[in-house]
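Sorry, any thoughts here?
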Amino acid sequence: MYLVEDKGGAIALMIAALCFLGTWPALLTLLERKGRLPQHTYLDYSITNFLAAVIIALTFGQIGHSSPTVPNFLTQLRQNNWPSVAFAMIGGLVLSIGNLSTQYAWAFVGLSVTEVVSSSITVVVGTTMNYFLDDRINRAEILFPGVGCFLIAVCLGSAVHASNANDNIAKLDSINKKCLKGDEEAQSKVNSQIKIAEIRPGTREFLQQLEMTRAIKVHGRSILFGLSIVIFSGLCFSLFSPAFNLATNDQWHLLKEGVPHLVVYTAFFYFSVSCVIVGIGLNILFLYHPICGLPSSSLKAYVYDWNGRHWALLAGLLCGFGNGFQFMGGQAAGYAAADAVQALPLVSTIWAVLLFGEYHRSSRKTYMLLISMLFMFIVAVAVLMASAGHRKLVQDH
């Protein structure tokens, strides 16, 4: 079994996880904006997300030396370690529900703000829990100022969303007033503008066309509704890493004497089993009983829906490997420091601007808030990674 034992390797894994975890939400958002039902997309995503965990377990979890205290993946599947398995599966449960919630939040709030607020809540709550679970191996005088930066980012993220939403409302109201006047010439001009292939991002025509093509209709919905989904998903995300920490390190001493701790690869496998069960189960339910005003669908319609399926499958792989690398780095350097990957909004915001035209032609106030939010994230990432410690592995005892 391959283990990461040095701080440099752990940080490299965190950086890779940061890139992967910041990219997969952009792919799912792209499909929703093109009209693909979120239920179809999440079913595809769930399959390859689980496949990534299997690949990691059968490669990193099997290669190299195996010992009675640190067994390889297949050996550990036969051991009596169900208390730890339960924690791993609880972690997968809350992560799956959180990911499913954010899929709808991206439509209502936007990709960048959703990731900022949910990730910041994750750090504020989850990192604090991991610090104490990890027996304080991270430097508190560095770690908690980083947590404070994430908390400030939550407030700035909410302010960015409110300001940008007001900008969009003003643009859409402008075009609606023209249409209500009954001016046929103005109406014709508007319709011809919408038919232009290359509509400039951020314009009122761009926003109106987006509302017509996307799967989830959001115009006129309450800002608080979208933010409530984001806060709920953030609370779910804040629990999955501490649960995984308990699964791999057994801080509450629930395993029987002589039973080795779950290695990170076995824990991640069970974690992903829970993810795929919840993800597939809930989305099959949502096919026939949809939420947020979506149309109903069926398993047959899902099977034959190949529109953008390759992007959904890629998103699942990116998320699966991103989570696996985060846990591998956390086991070596402390899960509190590994929460630095929650700076994934840095990557998501880049995709949001490049792919979706978020914040194009917004007000100066929105731009200032956005810059402040991203700057606070950069500071927070640097501080959290600087707090990384070194876990004494089981075989060192």
Q: What stands out?
A: The chain has one domain: 7-396. The CA atoms of residues 139 and 387 lie 5 Å apart. The chain is about 75% helix and 0% strand. Residues 140-180 form the longest helix (41 residues).
